[in-house]
Amino acid sequence: MSVWGVVLAGGGGTRFGGLKQFAVLGGQTLLERVVDIAAESCDGVVVVLPAGHPWSGKGVRATGGATRAESVRSGLAVLPGDAGIVCITDAAHPLASPGLYRRVIDAVRAGADAALPGLPLTDAVKKIETVDDENLLGLAGATTPAGGSVSAQMPMAFSLPVLRRAHELIADAVEDSAMVAAAGGRVVVVPGEAINVHVTTQAELSVAQALLPLSQAWSQ
């Protein structure tokens, strides 16, 4: 039973202002960096790219769909027959360490249907009822206490048969662990990494750049 990574890089980068997967961090694009890290912990990698975009790097190329779930299904469709565990990640998490990949994979090997890294929240979460896009202000609604909640990170690992079954039953969701849970699967949380920033804006890319030296030391 082999372990394969699926790296999602088919988005249009609306919040970033362009295709963020090809933004440069430490001499590599975000996508190249994530593919290299995934390849350290997986037997093979599938790279899901926008339609018509070439790829000459590591891994097998697949074409992304109109939604995140469609892009995942496109990646799953080209996995080899001996694949038993799949690790889903994206180009927006370039600082996740190889150890984090191993933790989620090991949790699935130990019997979980899915495993994700979680970083405990330290601030209360506010629901925004209305948003003024021009002034970036909102009307605050319900409050969720920080205690007992985590920020879900990438990469996430899955039993491949369980994930495929979840995609057959559920058309779309925010992320794949939610689909597995909704389909009755057992999802576990492993310790996340504070350095594992989610790059969606130019400011977050600057944060990743500042953290890069620490990330390289973390990975050793």
UniProtKB/TrEMBL annotation:
- MF term (GO), any: nucleotidyltransferase activity
InterPro entries, sorted: IspD/TarI, IspD/TarI_cytidylyltransf_bact, Nucleotide-diphossugar_trans
Q: Does the keyword Transferase apply?
A: yes
Recorded hits in Pfam families, A to Z, give: IspD
- In its keyword annotation, does this UniProt entry include Transcription? no
Q: Which UniProt keywords apply?
A: Nucleotidyltransferase, Transferase
Signal peptide from the UniProt entry? none
Q: What is this protein called?
A: 2-C-methyl-D-erythritol 4-phosphate cytidylyltransferase
What taxonomic lineage is listed for the species of origin?
Bacteria, Bacillati, Actinomycetota, Actinomycetes, Kineosporiales
Q: Which gene encodes it?
A: ispD
